[in-house]
Design brief:
The chain is α/β, with parallel strands linked by helices. The chain has helices at 49-65, 73-89, 91-101, 106-125, 163-176, 192-202, 217-226, 239-252, 275-287, 307-319, 339-354, 388-391, 407-415, 430-439, 473-478, and strands spanning 16-18, 21-23, 29-33, 40-45, 142-150, 153-157, 180-184, 210-212, 230-236, 257-260, 265-269, 297-303, 358-361, 378-381, 398-404, 419-420, 422-426, 444-447, 463-464, 467-468, 481-489. Bound molecules: nicotinamide-adenine-dinucleotide.
Length: 490
């Protein structure tokens, strides 16, 4: 097989997509680096304020002009399905482009990110003609019913950790519900979504229905949220940014907002669990995408009777990882997205070690490769519930371990952070599993597994500081529709 040439995948810096075409930004210039080796991928010319206004105005006009929201619903559905086909058919270009510019490995992108992105679009496309309002039970002298309508223009703001997939979660339900979308991807991973926009046009989507503006969060992201014509905001990212976006929505609306935020999710292993399975699952749940996953299972809570064998399995699984460039076919764990993010991770680990924690694995930068930002899978013991390492989102391959004596203590430790995104439970006791689904304060509970499936009908979202509202499922489609009530007197 010929050697992979990362330099071949040089995206165009004219990476804004407004009114159906690529447009060179007139705003700030960002140097986008390849996470795998720190080499300049491409300069990015962000949109300026006038271009942002133009994108939003253009989207609002296109949504009306093209009748996107009122066209034959099955026509919208067919078009979105065609788009999904084109995305899958573009794998040979899209997968390397995503791999070179992000932390996702080429193998994962081919096997999962691209098929998942396409299927997510298909899933929401099917809602276009399958959801209507309902007739209410009124007295017989009148007829009352509800209607759903698109908001008009939805602002979608995405993070860098799974650039295509996170964008699809936002844009697919919004477009299927008849809205136009203006997407602002992360300034760290701006390029692959532009290819999605080009393919949307190729599929026949009217120009201006799906737009991309590039830029930083505090300027372009904030201005997008605040723009007058934005009817709804859909955000995935950190809790801190989520708060700022909610405040901006309140000040300029109030505008409805969906917030998918950070997490510090526990994985609980009881003494009656299948330890081989649990050990493998726990290790994978914190090393997938080098821990840069919102639902990363970053806290191991293990019954004291099985702590030693479970820890032993995890340490061995960590040691078996082959850390390397995303495009390397034997890489099992890729890089951290940036040197800055690596320093944040390392700062939290160093403070934990200085405070008395012990690294049973890792504890610092990975020894190789030499270039790029790589962190060793790390297991921290000797931590207490109130420690920063247990409470704060590290967003890297760092797992803390605490032991418990009984179920009550396990659930209390699991619930004892400000976050509530997901939780995993490993047990062979069905009653305990069912109790856990009631007791754990998180938006998603996994039993004897950890991680999402391809069941798009299951919504995802956070409790507590992990968010408001849901992505995926029927809920995400409905969150992109306005509801209207009509009452007719006979
Ligand atoms: P981030 O909050 O720093 O940035 C996310 C996006 O928001 C970026 O596009 C950024 O430019 C933009 N932004 C920043 N400030 C803004 C502002 N004031 N107004 C508007 N936009 C602004 O997050 P990140 O570092 O890109 O991503 C990692 C975080 O995302 C983690 O906390 C992770 O848990 C979370 N995340 C959550 C989910 C979920 O489903 N709950 C999924 C993936 C990632």
């Amino acid at each position: 097989m010929p050697e992979f040439d990362a330099n071949r995948f040089r995206p165009d810096s004219a990476a804004n997509f407004i009114g159906g075409r690529k447009i060179e930004g007139r705003g700030r210039m960002f140097e986008v680096l390849r996470p795998s080796d720190g080499v300049l991928l491409a300069p990015l010319l962000a949109a300026d304020a006038a271009q942002l206004d133009e994108a939003v105005a253009d989207a609002a006009a296109a949504q009306k002009r093209s009748c996107w929201g009122t066209m034959e619903p099955r026509g919208r559905m067919r078009l979105l399905r065609r788009w999904a086909e084109l995305i899958e058919g573009d794998t040979d270009w899209l997968a390397p482009l995503e791999a070179v510019g992000s932390t996702r490995t080429l193998a994962e992108i081919r096997a999962w990110d691209i098929p998942y992105t396409a299927e997510c679009i298909r899933f929401f496309a099917e809602f276009a003609d399958k959801h209507g309002g309902e007739v209410g039970a009124t007295t017989p002298d009148k007829l009352g019913f509800t209607l759903t309508e698109p908001f008009g223009v939805v602002a979608a703001i995405a993070p860098w950790n799974l650039p295509l997939v996170m964008a699809a979660w936002k844009i697919a339900p919004a477009l299927a519900a008849g809205n136009a979308v203006v997407l602002k991807p992360s300034e760290l991973t701006p390029f692959s979504v532009v290819r999605l926009a080009e393919l949307a046009i190729e599929a026949g989507m009217p120009a201006g229905i799906f737009n991309i503006v590039q830029g930083g969060g505090a300027d372009i992201g904030d201005a997008l949220v605040r723009a007058d014509a934005i009817g709804k905001v859909s955000f995935t990212g950190s809790t801190r940014t989520g708060r700022a976006i909610m405040a901006a929505c309140a000040e300029t609306g109030p505008k409805p907002v969906t917030l998918e935020l950070g997490g510090k999710s526990p994985q609980i292993v009881f003494g009656d669990a299948d330890l081989d399975k649990a050990g493998a699952i726990v290790a994978k749940a914190i090393t997938l995408n080098a821990g840069q996953v919102c639902v990363a299972g970053s806290r191991l809570l293990v019954h004291e009777s099985v702590a030693e064998p479970v820890i032993d399995r995890i340490v061995r699984a960590f040691a078996a990882h082959r850390i390397g460039e995303t495009w390397n076919s034997d890489t099992t764990m890729g890089p951290i997205v940036s040197e800055r993010q690596l320093e944040t991770i390392d700062g939290m680990v160093s403070r934990a070690l200085a405070g008395g924690a012990e690294a049973l694995a890792g504890g610092g930068r990975a020894a190789s490769p030499q270039r790029g930002s790589y962190y060793a899978p790390t297991l921290l013991a000797g931590v207490a519930q109130n420690d920063e390492a247990v409470q704060g989102e590290i967003f890297g391959p760092v797992l803390t371990v605490q032991t418990f004596a009984d179920e009550k203590e396990a659930f209390a430790l699991a619930n004892g952070t400000r976050y509530g995104l997901a939780a995993g439970v490993h047990t062979s006791d069905v009653a305990r599993a069912l109790r856990a689904t009631r007791e754990l304060q998180a938006g998603t509970i996994w039993v004897n597994r950890y991680g999402r499936s391809d069941d798009f009908i299951l919504p995802t979202g956070g409790y507590k500081e992990s968010g408001i509202g849901k992505d995926l499922g029927r809920e995400a489609y409905l969150a992109n529709c306005k509801g209207k009530t009509a009452l007719i007197q006979f």
